[in-house]
Amino acid sequence: MSAEQPQDTPLQVVILGAGVIGLSTAHVLSTRYPSYKITVVARDLPDEAGLLSQAWASPWAGADWSPIGDYDERRYKMELKTFNTLWDMLPTGLVRTLDSRICFAEPVDVGKLWYKDLPRDFRVLKTEELPAGLAAGVSFTTVSLNPQIYLPWLYHGLRARGVHFVRRKFESIAEAAEYFNGNGKGVVVNATALGARTLIGVEDQDVFPIRGQTILASVPNMHQFLSYPLGAGPCAITLSIGIWEIPTGHATYMIPRPSPEGHVLIGGTFQVGNWDLSVNHDTGKGIWQRASEIEPALKDERTRIISHNVGLRPARKGGPRIEAEWFKLPLQTDLLTKPRGSQTPQDLLVVHAYGFGAAGYQGSWGAAEEVVDILQASVQPNA
């Protein structure tokens, strides 16, 4: 059965999750199809209260672009679209540019790196520019966001477009059908991140957290993305080598953000499978010590720590899940002792969009475009 609507009935879309993936999808969808009735339903919304919640990842993310892992065609397309979109947003002040470098302890054919055509100003470092003991390196201009500014911008912009927001925690994918008015037809976008692990009907056990502890600080005159190379001395690097296999769980980096106060996010940890949301102060001391060895600006008397933070990156074995799936309602499960949502037999189209791990922001606009393409092709398969 298709979810196609009568021509005079606008399609209803319910987006579960108000993180950067859910909000970006709502933006692309409302831009392409302004007649659609879009509702975003989430336990946490990007308002004053929601931005303080540790129960979701988006407020605590690094929110920059940096190369992660080896080449993957699908991810490359998502990140290229996102980088170009963010670059075009520079005049708004929501995005800022950053100088960045990647250095390698072993010889590398840097001219063939998969991301060389993605950021701006890519060039190979000269030998005299490399720190002692490193074999090769490149530099480029990247971009960063401030989630505390960017998420509310998306949120208020969507509300102005007529997108409806509901604060609610879902137990089951079937409950989304409650928001389909009239003939009960519609489409669900599942952007529940770590919630996809326990959302009844989905229950994806490939979803797992990667704990990140960071420090937000005000640092005068810091404009370069900096990090610590794996197995080498200090250098600007974006952890493109081995980021998924950091044996100590440490991932030291500093990301300047768009902010009149000169905010810099200083990290951090990369602890796979760790659900602990409490701040470990010994870990915080280690983060500050390692970062201070790289960046002298942290020792400036004007530098001040604003907060210690913990967030859980929503990762998935095998990478992000972006695909359509049909469900038969009502769901047949013993877990729902008191079924909620529509009990009228029907087919429910769900487009999944979760499992982006540390790359949610840097793939957000490309992922949203792909989600909307899949949604529309499923709704109108012959179009």
What is the number of helices? 5
Rg, nearest Å: 22 Å
Structural class assignment:
alpha/beta
User: What is the CATH architecture assignment of the largest domain?
Assistant: 3-Layer(aba) Sandwich
Strand order of the largest sheet: 6-2-1-7-15-14
* CATH-defined superfamily of the largest domain: NAD(P)-binding Rossmann-like Domain
Rounded mean pLDDT score: 87
Poorly predicted residue ranges = 1-6, 229-246
Q: Which band does the percent of strand residues land in?
A: 25-35%
| Straight-line distance between termini | 16 Å
Number of strands: 15
Shape: globular
Please characterize this protein's 3D structure.
This is FAD dependent oxidoreductase. It comes from Irpex rosettiformis. This protein has about 375 residues and is of the alpha/beta class. The protein folds into 2 domains: about 10-55 and about 150-205 and about 320-380, NAD(P)-binding Rossmann-like Domain (Rossmann fold, 3-Layer(aba) Sandwich); about 95-145 and about 210-315, D-Amino Acid Oxidase, Chain A, domain 2 (2-Layer Sandwich), CATH 3.30.9.10. It has 5 helices and 15 strands. It has helices spanning about 20-30, 75-90, 145-160, 280-295, 365-380; strands spanning about 10-15, 35-40, 95-105, 120-125, 135-145, 165, 185-190, 205-220, 225, 250-255, 265-270, 270, 305-315, 320-330, 345-355. The strands form 3 sheets. Strands 6-2-1-7-15-14 form a 6-stranded mixed sheet, covered by helices on one side. Helix 1 packs across helix 5 (about 365-380) and helix 2 (about 75-90) packs across helix 5. The longest helix is centred in the N-terminal third of the chain and has 16 residues, at about 75-90. It is globular and about 70 Å long. Mean pLDDT is about 85; it is low at about 1-5 and about 230-245.
